[in-house]
Amino acid sequence: MSREPELRTDPALLPVLDELRRREPIFHRPEFGATRTDHLAMTAEDFWEVGASGNRYSREHVLDVLDERQRNPQPDPYETGDFHCRQLAEAVYLLTYTLRQGERVTRRATIWRRDADGWKIVFHQGTVVADT
Q1: What are the residue boundaries of the structural domains of the chain, listed by start?
Q2: How far is CA 9 from CA 5, 14, 31, 99, 117, in A?
Q3: Where does the source fall among the domains of life (predicted)?
Q4: pLDDT tens for residues 75-101?
């Protein structure tokens, strides 16, 4: 018996998966916005996240960190893969994927909500993959 779940996206959700895949990793896609105003627009008012460190971060803290990154940009090459989408409620979706940044590998989970004015990030979590 495998400890890994079988992650399959419902074929009806493939268009949603495609839309959300293009937006991840969040805050790394300048075509969807790079300013504080853009980031405010793409996050729900009650957005928060759990970082790969295990720490919880408020929306304001995340926005402050993103502002600092804009002032002092650093190269951040990455690869994404293993995308999976699951509908949680009407217009609410869980997107999971793997992010590779050099030697660091994390599993990511973002809860997205489609509002009248577009996609909003409700929650995000990153978890470092332990050596197996």
Answers
A1: 11-128
A2: 12, 7, 25, 18, 25
A3: Bacteria
A4: 889 999 999 999 999 999 999 999 999
